[in-house]
Amino acid sequence: MAPVRDRRTGFSRRRQYGLFLGYVLAVAGAVLGAALLLASRFHPPAFAALRMGAASITAPVSGALAWAVGGIASVPASIGNYFAVHARNKALIAEIERSRALLTRARVIAYDNRRLAALLQLRERGVEPVVTARLVSSTASSGRRFALLNAGRWQGVLPGMPVRGPEGVVGRVVETGPAVARVLLLTDAESLIPVRRTRDGLPAIVAGRGDGMVEVRSVGSSVRFAPGELFVTTGTGGIYPPGIPAARVVRGGLDAAEARPIALPDSLDFALVQRPFMPLPPPPPGRGR
Amino acid sequence: MTGIDYEPFAPALPPAPARLLPWATVAAGSLLTALPFIAPAPILPPCGLLMLLAWRLLSRFSLRLWAAAPLGLLDDLVSGQPLGSAVLLWSLCFLLIEFLEQRLVFRDFWQDWAIATGAIAFCLVGGRFLATPLAAPLDSAVAVQIGLSALLFPLASRIAAWLDAKRNRP
User: Which CATH code fits A129-274?
Assistant: First the structure.
């Protein structure tokens, strides 16, 4: 490409001032960006309304796209099911037979649990769900791991509520719009969840790494983690109800180990928003904002 | 895009759509984050940035020098980065390209590609350090993202060139 000569303004004052103003505005844009960055660093929820406004427009589009893609993707599976229906029927009947004994035992254990809890006069906090909704899109180009939930304040979703899938913890709500909410996934690098080991109740912390895996960190010192160990939430901190599976260790280690989250949000059909396990008490009157 | 694309008697776009077209394609690139999938890691290339660089390097009067800031603001609103990071980084990219353009006299597509790769790497690495803590093990993911984006730049350039030919026919 030949060198550009159109940068010369000649004697035209209008072109000279126009070019100069362009540079001034470009530098002003960079300075404005730095100022916005500082504001959002020191007060993260500062621009939540703007972000949620944009998300209110994109989330319905994502929802419709997901519906269309899901519909098309389910065609081969439906055809396969049609042909394999007899074999599947047989397999399912066999599985019911196998699990009947297990179900009976589980019912007995559940009854025992209820009876023992009543004897101890334990008071269980109910964890009733707020809403069941779909995670429609995510921040796929950024290092942060956020997902958009297809329900918002109109459905009763508020910041700080835990979100779980059928298998385990997904994350928690950080910002809400009228019909959309932003969920901080547990794989985000700024997510910390207190957990305990199922085997012996050892307390630990599940910290996100940002690349789809999480890290299990011990709270005490010189603890060895082995592959396959399961960690569930403790209820400490008041957000997540206790006993929800969070992560399973993939590679063992001393004091810190790489783990895989139990609920993989990309394979999730529906996410369940719950109330915070122990919501923060309201601030005392006459103090604070 | 195949066959004869030189159509000398086809009418050019009216001025308003012609001016709006680059803005619209960059915004559409940013809005690709609305695709319905939950990414486990940063894998989607920054398509808004790719279109912005393609327009800037291909036809420098298609976007004003200050256009990077408002387009970056839109990208920040939908990308999940802290608000202001794309405003800052994209504006710096524009100023850097302006500076390079005055130094680099003859430029070919290869040089454009190299400049765009540098700008993409600058924006992605800068965005990673602005958004996530230093300790997060994201380096390999960001390196893959930079590679993917650099490979996608010729496609973005092709789209921009095709639209540019529609915009201002002789």
Answer: 2.40.10.340
